[in-house]
Amino acid sequence: MKAVAQPQAALAATRRCWCGASGFVPFGPEYGECRTCGTLVYLKDTPPEQLLVRDDETDFYGKKYWLERQQAAFGFPDIHARSRNDLPERNLHWLRALLKYQPPPAKVLEVGCAHGSFVALMRQAGYQAEGLELSPWVVAFGQETFGIPVHVGPVESLDMPAASLDAIVLMDVLEHLPDPSATMRRCLQLLKPAGLLLVQTPCFREEVSYAALVESKDPFLGMLIPEEHIYLFSQRSVTELFRRIGAGHIAFEPAIFAQYDMFLAVSREPLEARASEKVESALMAAPGGRIALALLDLRESTRQQIESLTRGLEEARVEAAQLRENHASAMQQIQTLTGWVHDARADAAAALESMHSQAAAHASEVAAFNGMHESTVKQIETLTGWVHEARAEASAAKESISSQAATHAAEVATFKDMHADAVKQIAALTGLLQEAREKGSALQNTMEEQTKAHAAQMAEARASYAALSDGMEKQKSADAKQIAELNGLHTSAVQQIETLTGWVHEAREANATLQSAMEEQKNAQAREVAALQGLLARPMLKFALGLSNIPERVRGRLRSGTADEPR
User: Which residues is 263 bridged to in the sheet?
Assistant: First the structure.
């Protein structure tokens, strides 16, 4: 970092801006921003001789600049490709602005015309246009390629009468000039008083730092070309440049490469923008003007199509963003539904496991029944063996009876009875077997019905659970309301109790006051009785009482020393 800063500081100490100031704020490794006018300045001094091309094979702006340097250093097409590519693109853009402020017929010079395609287009539109270039090889290339007049050398040495031109065009030239003030003054000398300068040059934005340009990979970084781009003006500084040389009327037009360029019309007198009808009329008056007008119409149509496509692309981007949002929302819904499906599967698995458990229990019952059935079959087989044995014994007995029929008639009758009992037993066992089979069938039907009933009960239980959950929510809401009402009643009751408590305290205080008054009245009556008794003790008073009409009841009480209780 120090290795870069020290040489830069040394360069800045000796370098001066076009405005005459020498103070710079570092901007990248080789540039500085003028503290006075805001121009971005290449800090290494560039002598005016660098512009001159004395030897096309070795000088900086000679033949190799156009055939090798631009392609190798910046990836630009060479001059052969640009002589074709520039016509439908930048040349038509420049022509439209020139037509706006200076329609044909007019005498125009393009300083730095390169391959000369714009000069050729201006001549096609009806201008008396000529070019100017530093390299003799490029001059010859333009003359041979487009058949146009091109001068060689810097504009300062151009042999042309003063005030003889209507317009001078400088496209991507101003930033290369070692002394832009001097060169622009020379251009104004060649222009008529109302003449026009049409300038395209990189636009430095003073409010943006070098670090911000690097971080955002701003296209303007491509304009920092040491040795070539000496002055990179801002709109403020380029306005100040032309104001100082007497051209204070400036109109900024849309630049074709607006991401890093500016495009301006400059004059010493107020600029007049011509109406499109006047421009078309001027073009129609020139033999080749119709072709230029058709090219401009085609470019305008193409521009509108591009704008329409750009709007469509922007709308498509907005729709794509909305689709992405919808997709994200759908994915969230799918995840939610997937969770529900997993829960349902888990419930189904639990129900299936329960059914399997029940089926296993039923299978155990069936297995037990089968065991009972097998046992019964074995018993029947045993009985059948016994029957066969009995039949064999009966046959042997029959033979014996046949030989001894007369003597053993009673035994035969007994055997017949036994045989009849055996037949009954066999019939009974056969009935038991049939009954066992019917029970087995009934048991199987019962198992199927129970399975169906279990399934119905599970469905009913789920519905009941849902209803119960809903009921619980409703009950919870009702309970909350009741609790709120009870809280209100409780608050009211507390207030009433407090009021009653106050009344009780007041009643107690009133009662205490009443008791005190009654006690005081009783004491007063006792004092009165005592006084009366004292009077009665006197003889004359007793005599008076005997003669008076005082009721006996009162006299008796006075004598006894009692008085009526207060009412």
Answer: 200, 253
